[in-house]
Amino acid sequence: LTLLYRGQSWSRVAIAFGDAKTVEAMEFAAAFPWQEFLPTQFSFKVEVDNVKGQENRFDFARIIAGKLFSLFEKELKFKPTLDLKHPDFIFLLYFDGKKYYLGLDVAGQELSSRSYRVFTNSASYKGDFGYYFLRSSGFKVGEKLFLGFVKDGTVAIEAALFAYALPVQDLSTTFSYKRFPCCRDVTPR
Known about the structure:
By secondary structure, this protein is α/β, with parallel strands linked by helices. It has helices at residues 2-6, 34-37, 54-75, 127-136, 154-163, and strands at 14-20, 41-49, 79-82, 89-95, 100-105. The protein has a five-stranded mixed sheet with strand order 1-5-4-2-3, with helices on one face. The protein is elongated. The relative contact order is 0.20. The mean pLDDT is 91.
């Protein structure tokens, strides 16, 4: 949860449970504690990241969804449904150039967007990019920071969040981990 609420430099946080050299070779263990993370009835979709070509991403998502359906319905007796618009859970397939990794997204949305971004313009950039500029400048907690041409103030706000160790994400946000059976009574701080 610390990564989820306080992380400024990533767009996803996932629980990893599979990797393979090819998508076709990807296997998931029924021994994984699926019942702790998924209710018996749920909707899901598969998102593919860092793979070139929309056709390739679509094909890989279809293959993984088929394998997940097989595992959930036949071995675990779950009742999953595919929902591409508003799923309960998102499974992420990520390719690092050598291997494919599969995980369950604990947020259910990208974390690079920020709730403080109200008056954006065409020159605005997301919070994780502002944080990158801040950290690459060599800024350290306790130092002063001079910013020129702040536009919408993304770097200044990211500096304040970093300097005071404040949560980046709103604590009341409905992240998908709150639907995990093992996390129903968890309260973020």
